[in-house]
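Lab channel / #folding
Pinned by the channel admin:
"Please post every new chain as: sequence first, then the structure tokens as a reply. Keep commentary short and put observations after the output so the thread stays searchable."

First post following the new format, from NK:
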Amino acid sequence: MNLRELLQGVNITDSTGSLDIDVTGIASDNRDVKLGNVFICYQGISVDSHIFISDAIQKGAAVVIGEKPIAELTGLTKPFTYVQVPNGRRAMSLLSANWHGNPAEQLKLIGITGTNGKTSTAHLIYAILKASGRKVALIGTVGHRYTNVHGTEKKLPALLTTPDAFALHALFKQFTEEGIEYVTMETSSQGLALQRLAGLTFDTAVFTNFTQDHLDYHRTMEDYLKAKLMLFEQLGEGGVAILNADLPVTECIAQACANSKRLMYGHGSNADLHAEDVELSLNQLAFTALTPCGSMPAKLRLIGEYNLYNALAAIAVGVRYSCSVSAIQEGLAATIVPGRFELIDRGQDFAVIVDYAHTPDGLENILTAAKRITERKLISVFGCGGDRDNGKRPKMGNISAQIADYSVITSDNPRTEDPDAIIAQIVSNLPHDAKYVCISERRHAIHHAITTAKSGDVVVIAGKGHEDYQEIHGKRFPFDDRVVASDILESL
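Reply from TO:
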């Protein structure tokens, strides 16, 4: 592709060398550079990739795009074209779109953001649109999926909730080649802040909720919210914002999309969509949704009252795209999300639930929901990830102590931290009468909880959900809470 064509839409501060040359590809990692490539560098979180320019040129890079003035780059002898931009990450996104032919322009993009509920809401929307006969794809935490032109559902693995820019636009291109019209996708705060979605225009934007998380990256709740607001600033003409009316930050979000139409959902009758006659059991969540298009009874296999919000958000998307009542009902009833209030049933006389809840709000939601259906005692198994926001650790400890009858505090993904040090922070401010045990080895902790449970109890194993690994000292080892719990139950 011609470099000048590749740079369409990119804000160029300065350049040296010819822009009328052909390039063979794009790389943002110097180890991936091939002959004739464009190497894009920027100041990263911990590494300034400008230091790899010399290596990239030695490997054959014909063009370097960076944030520093050319005068600051010294010791480079081979001739190459240099393009200075204000933001290398944003340039990466725009170049990725251009390289793949801007496939997103052919798609209606539905973005979902929020601290919790993104995955479940994205799956519910996918199921509703699929049931209505729309050609739809899903991009999210537990994997990507779409139904091809032959009617076969394809599933692709996900490394990140929001893929890096080049991978994302490659997905969009694949979707358009398969005739996809709609894409429902989780948009993480990190993905937004890192400009992975730069240049995209969203047709619909959904906000689920807002509580503490990722402060290891964003530092403050204000910065965290600002990152999420970027999604709503990218709504296109005629776009619709679907907002949780019960959030204190909703007014702020509404201001970010003041020129867009809005649909509000929540518990109160002042919302455009709300629910009544809510029935919750271990097997289903049932309610009647009151919408601008009338009322509709609904049933979900996603348990927990917090999923009522996720369902209302998904119904709002169905209403936005004029889906029939029957399609909305069918989609809701069919949705199963791996690792989200997932029941592990091996014939035991107590319940075992695996859930991804890994934030204070998420843990409170899952334990509160489980408590409502617990006949006897609620047993909580959870930990906190290493190298992440450590301010939430004592909060989660207190939440479990207050709601669960017995807490088994263990390791999550300790990463480079000492698991026992993480656990010590979790229990640092527990009440004196809290009933808990600390078992750092997660498999042993799950075994203890399950073998402790009696008839009528509920065991909640929180934190990892769909994940099939445990990250320790920078390495990932096979570990799936669902498999571990199943094996223990079958051995009893």
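NK: The longest helix spans residues 306-320.
TO: also worth noting, Residues 89 and 194 are 7 Å apart (CA to CA).
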